[in-house]
Amino acid sequence: QTFEAIESERVQALTLLAASLAHEIGNPLNALHIHLQLLERELRKLKTAWEGSAPAPASAGAETGSGPRATHTDVATVLARMEQFLQVAQGEVNRLDYIVTQFLQALRPTAPQLRPTSLNDVVRKTVDLLRPELENRGITVQMQLSRAVPETPLDPVQMQQVLVNLVKNAMQAMTRGGTLTLQTGADSEGVWVVVADTGSGMTPEQLQRVFEPFFTTKQKGSGLGLMIVQRIVRAHRGRIEVESHVGRGTTFRIWLPLHERRPRLLEPPGGAAPASEE
Ligand code: ADP
């Protein structure tokens, strides 16, 4: 059975809330970043000053007693630890910044730059790009690209982003190898591409939530990939469908209209219209 994920009002409201939160986090995060840098600079000065005052090695002179030496070691240890803590804090600030930036970027209105493009070419390029990783993971690629696919008005950069996201998800779902199928075709009104894997599959509950921002079952996932995919497809006035069975695999199917119409400007969340009908 095919499920078409529909952005519920609840999800839209949550997305809007998250967007304003992300935006508000930006300024204090920036201040945090700068102040950690200042702290690092001061710490380095302190370290240099301290090292300059280092006692001579034990063999060099008798005037350095064991008392001051112990203190010296203590301070050096504390300084080293402070440096290490600071590094961790900076790393986390960077991570936070990355997440916030990615999220806001995913929501930013970007109209696709439509120009006559061969969907087959985009598929081929994507597979070429990811082939080393696919081979590494022992995944067999099956390409069934229809010769009947005409050039269609689409944004090749955005469409490649869509396919990269789908193929990466497929790879990650096939932890023990499998088959990735990429299929294209055309009907009287549009072109379509299918990305299918023989991976873990999803439960109906997971399937319902795949397009939600931040929904992820991965340890290092952002949960933003499929939201971006959906937004790009919608901006092209296309449709995306997903079907999945636990233990058997997942199939994503994207349909894009053949005739040029004004692209839909990706609207900020809340104002997003439901998926276009045709
Ligand atoms: P992320 O990859 O960062 O988790 P996505 O939005 O791309 O974010 O995907 C959301 C979730 O949807 C994934 O964590 C995973 O649970 C599920 N998912 C997406 N694609 C597949 C797939 N091909 N097979 C199985 N599960 C998938």
Automatic annotation (TrEMBL):
Residues 267-278 have a biased composition (Low complexity). It catalyses: ATP + protein L-histidine = ADP + protein N-phospho-L-histidine. Transmembrane segments: none annotated. Its EC number is 2.7.13.3. It comes from the Bacteria. Residues 20-260 form the Histidine kinase domain. GO terms for molecular function: ATP binding; phosphorelay sensor kinase activity. Residues 264-278 are annotated as: Disordered. Keywords: ATP-binding, Kinase, Nucleotide-binding, Phosphoprotein, Transferase, Two-component regulatory system. This is histidine kinase.
